[in-house]
Amino acid sequence: MLDVKTFHMDSFIPMPYEEALAPRLKLAQEKLQKGNGAGGEFTGWVHLPRDHDKEEYARIKAAAAKIRGNSGALVVIGIGGSYLGARGVVECLQSPNYNLKKKDGPNIYFVGNGLSSDAMGDVMDLVDGVDFSVNVISKSGTTTEPAVAFRFFRKLLEERYGREGARERIFATTDCRRGALKALADSEKWETFVVPDDIGGRYSVLTAVGLLPIAAAGVDIDGLMHGAMVMMERCAVSGYECPAWRYAAARYQLYRDGKSVEILGCFDPAFRMMAEWWKQLFGESEGKEDKGLFPASADFTADLHSMGQYIQQGKRLMFETVVRFGPSARQFSVAPDEGNGDGLNFLAGRSMDFIRDKAAEGTLLAHTEGGVPNLIVEAGERNAESLGQLIYFFEYACGLSGYLLDVNPFDQPGVEAYKQNMFALLGKPGYEDRRSELEAKLAR
Ligand code: PA5
Q: What is the set of domains in the chain, with CATH numbers?
């Protein structure tokens, strides 16, 4: 059962804070549960584990089975909330090396999450001679990066299988009514899945947005949804028995006491893309109106040999939240060596998990002694059930945190600035005046 431990940050906080923050958390809780706070029209994810569309859920499973049956690769096209969760879960539960492993399911390639021609070309090469399907994901249906990538991969599919054959291999996840992708999908009769109106991109991993690619990779989505449901029930209770309250209160208090960066760390490299998902979740939800913790991540122990120096002795602006998983699925122990040339016999008989756990304890003590408060999220065994709990926990804590900060945790107005400039510079009709203005600035 997921738990949050705050012992290693309490000494950094001058006054008890939980009692003082409880009334504000209670208000934030009501806003999430009733959907009547800022951005309340985007709180559909709060009851999603219970209220999701069961007919669509069955179609997701059927589509995943079809892809697993007829494709050696699934190309997943999307960016931001239409990308990070699926990749995070696949890598966390199946392995960052999933595509290199022997398996019954398809390789999963993610494209449309940037504008690199070379990155896209690599995936085109990888599907050359391989039967593949495409899942194009965009809630708005108009985001440039995935739309451009989809043009290329749709053409590849149609050249390979014809328009009829491609129809069997294109799955579009988008709004149920609006957007260019929805219109295209309807006219081409591709199978579509819905991003519900009341769920924004970064809270959508447990909708078809995440579930279709995750199921196609062979992950147990029933376990994931069940874990989320368990956490949904724990978070429905107002009070500090809800782990999201403990996490939201602790990080908010650290922020008020002057911390400006939160580093999400984990001693399991399979978690790296989940940390990227978490960064988007908190960064887009809190970073507005000149407020918010900057969400960073660290991959331990690798980053102890790079960012570890800064964390230990650099500017004292951060705290760490460390996600800990329980015993690994595969156990390896260090064998004794007669010559002991490497001097490692003191570890003979010790498991990799034991060594990892001692490294984690040593790091915790070093960092807290170096002035970096630590929060610990005990996530349990690394499996679908626990990850479902962890995802919902972070989403709920993020909603609470946004309301504690007095911002709308469900919009992202700042994302528009680069888009407007890009459209103008690319010559999109309607942006002519802005284009001349921007080109003049660039020519300086
Ligand atoms: O959280 C969000 O809403 C954004 O990060 C979106 O997910 C991202 O911009 C992609 O948008 P769309 O799914 O409309 O293509």
A: 3-36+224-404 (3.40.50.10490), 48-219 (3.40.50.10490)
